[in-house]
Design a protein that fits this description.
Chain lengths: 468, 468
């Protein structure tokens, strides 16, 4: 059952361990925050980071504190800080074709972009996916995946006919009667971004949605496995059945109006909620039968954190999802899709930049490092240690910790309630562990793929100190 | 009346003139397109650009053609290709703090980001604006500006009270009765982006909106000046009065529901439609009286193309706009706002990346070049030559060209109908002028700020050849 241990080569010069000089945030961070807050909302900032001194798994802040990072700028740091391969590529001119202007990739891209698409983005495409649409962020990825799903549904409903003049006139007035009934089904606790289309599918917390108009779209309960799985098998199965029944009921209630079902492999903002492969297999069968696009939103899970580049690969689906979104660890946003989801007419899913060539070029280097250093293997074996260690802490501190769970190093553990979790976040940061919260009372781990057994040991030490 | 002539220093090695080896697209571009189109929609691509050989105002394509560029990757190239100052900054390490990872700017930014915000972004802030929110694209800028306007309206309607538990529960189900009635008023022909919130305000063309659900928001006619202004003064004034009456009627029809009016200084996608300073002054007065946020969408006009960093500076408004959006020539997206538009609670207008530090660092260099080389002065004087030259062509080829207009080098001229315009675009590209279309039958000029009198002469030569 255990993944073979593979330890990645160390990053030369990486600190041995966190070391703290001040409380977090320290005085230099607070001085910067005071300046910064005059112009931007600086309240959410944990601390200010010394970009050049940070290395590998360790962040250095402007007060000289060295923190072990298992949060990764909200799961967006794939191979740690200042990886030698990334810096060498920058220095050696591999990105020079991106240095002299920012291009509109749908108007006049450089030939290097075609190479990137073919040799990098398509090389790692999810199985069964033939096309990739690139954007800049996860929210843009989701917005555009939803648009492609709407366009497909409208095409089917028109039966290949052109839109009428009346359709076009109504469109310009935002009064497309059938189209405005189109819906996307999402799950409670789901997070899909914060622009208004994506936000209508987001069901994470009121603060994300409050006061922003939303489309009248249906929501189903996410099954949310209880851990350890063996002890809750029946309860988990029943929750998954109820969730699938709710999905089916929502599709029945809106025949031919639900263009897509969107779901995260593991709910990232919603509290690291997991479901079983059987659940996703059933969801794939159900959506395929109804002709509803299944969008797996891998914005937070993509890029290797679960031990695979795509978390959904672990499910053995009866057929591929229709679309898979990405961003964060991939450095630019986008979605992959099956051929039939690509709009037939040009320019319907389009914008000025369509991503960022430099972030694509860096992704190429990142994927080379992941392969060369076998970082997915590392993430699987290191992740098993991490989750085993969290389970051990749950056994030893049952009044504080419960529900250890994870896939690769995409791991989490629960506190009894929000106040305890928030206090732990602060205490951990002050001991030198940069870690994030998710959901109401969960601690989430989103380290880079170079997170190795020795870092697991250190992270668990910090957590145990705080439990005591 | 004439702006003083200021010619920017030449870019060393910039081509003397366009020179063509093949038709556009040439065989090397077509071979790349065939490869590219297997994975992405490559139909809209004009040609593939040699990123390293392009210089100054001239694009070099993969077939060795050299084209004078007055389109600028959809108005997004501020100081031309491979400007020596940008390349030197890259080479000399000014961007090295961005090289080793991509940061989440709301979690742990580097201190360099605070400097960028204070010394660069706020230095060029529109008058009266105290805060800047950064994002990655124009659509994200608009989405988030609209969200800030909704949050402000909701705060006012609650009179400072906290949302009730019922409000929060309804929010999670997308059923906020009052909030879902919130509206944004935009103008026909307006373009504000293609994500679903921004797209609901976009009224450019059916193809941008077809089949995508939209919010039930009102639209008013954009007045659309006719040129030359002196010959159409009365007609233009009447159109502006009708437009303002329609805005007022829409606000009356939805009391306390319209959170924002959004308008471009010059409609960029909608066909380079202009309105007078008096129109915008009246719109500012009207929105201020009603407590409706006025958002000036400067995504396409920002960064100097009109001869000022912000087009709305030309209007002498009775008070500043509430928000100003930007992207394109600024290289990253965002909005500036007056203090009262910033949400009171943290994390309400937020996402993972909040922009891109590298694109911000490049903007700093770009703004230095604009100041050092007095590129706004250049753009004003060169723009006068360009518009005068277009007017001259309109007089000499009245069967082909009409409606010459512009502000700085943000200029346009009309063809009799779409087919003639589209044929001209192709013919111009084949002669060596990369130019764009807008609206139904308009040719738009969006050159870089280093576009100088000699380039005007060449562009007009190409256009005259095509008129003949």
């Amino acid at each position: 059952m255990n993944a073979p241990t593979h330890i990645p080569p160390p990053i030369p010069g990486e600190p041995e361990r966190a070391s703290m000089r001040t409380a977090i945030p320290g005085p230099a961070s607070e001085a910067l925050r005071a300046r910064h807050h005059r112009y931007q909302d600086a309240r959410p900032i944990h601390f200010y980071q010394d970009a050049r001194k940070s290395l590998g798994n360790y962040m250095v802040d402007v007060d000289g504190n060295v923190l072990l990072d298992v949060y990764g700028h909200i799961a967006a740091v794939p191979i740690g800080y200042n990886h030698p391969a990334l810096l060498a590529a920058w220095r050696d001119g591999r990105f020079d074709w991106c240095a002299g202007y920012r291009s509109a990739l749908g108007v006049a891209p450089a030939p290097e972009w075609v190479d990137l698409v073919e040799k990098t983005l398509m090389r790692v495409a999810p199985k069964g996916h033939t096309r990739v649409f690139t954007f800049t962020t996860g929210a843009e990825a989701v917005e555009n995946a939803l648009k492609a799903a709407f366009i497909r549904l409208a095409r089917r409903r028109r039966g290949g006919a052109q839109p009428s003049d009346g359709d076009l006139a109504a469109t310009m007035l935002n009064r497309q009667p059938g189209v405005n009934a189109f819906k996307v089904l999402s799950f409670d606790g789901g997070f899909h971004g914060r622009s208004m289309g994506a936000l209508s599918a987001t069901r994470s917390k009121p603060i994300h949605k409050l006061d922003i108009p939303a489309f009248d779209w249906p929501v189903a309960p996410f099954p949310a496995s209880h851990f350890p799985l063996a002890a809750h098998a029946e309860q988990n199965r029943a929750a998954e059945t109820r969730s699938l029944e709710a999905v089916e009921a929502a599709l029945d209630a809106h025949p031919d109006e639900v263009a897509a079902v969107i779901v995260e492999p593991i709910q990232g903002e919603g509290g690291d909620r997991h479901a079983s492969p059987a659940f996703f297999q059933a969801l794939r069968r159900l959506t395929a039968e109804r002709g509803v696009a299944l969008i797996i939103d891998e914005v937070q899970t993509c890029g290797g954190g679960t031990g695979a580049l795509w978390a959904h690969e672990a499910w053995d689906l009866p057929e591929p999802p229709d679309m898979v979104t990405f961003s964060k660890k991939m450095q630019l946003g986008g979605f992959y899709c099956r051929e039939e989801l690509a709009p037939i007419e040009p320019l319907r899913v389009f914008n000025t930049w369509l991503g960022d060539p430099l972030r694509g070029a860096q992704l190429e280097v990142i994927l080379e490092v992941i392969e060369r250093d076998r970082l997915l293997e590392n993430t699987r074996s290191t992740g098993e240690r991490l989750v085993a260690g969290l389970e051990d802490l749950c056994r030893r501190y049952p009044a504080v910790l419960s529900g250890a769970r994870g896939s690769g190093t995409f791991a989490a553990v629960d506190f009894p309630h929000a106040a305890r979790r928030d206090a732990a976040l602060t205490a951990l940061r002050n001991r030198g562990l940069e870690v994030g919260g998710s959901g109401e009372r969960t601690l989430r781990f989103r380290p880079a793929l170079i997170f190795a057994p020795r870092h697991v040991g250190e992270a668990l030490d910090h957590l145990e100190s705080v439990c005591k």
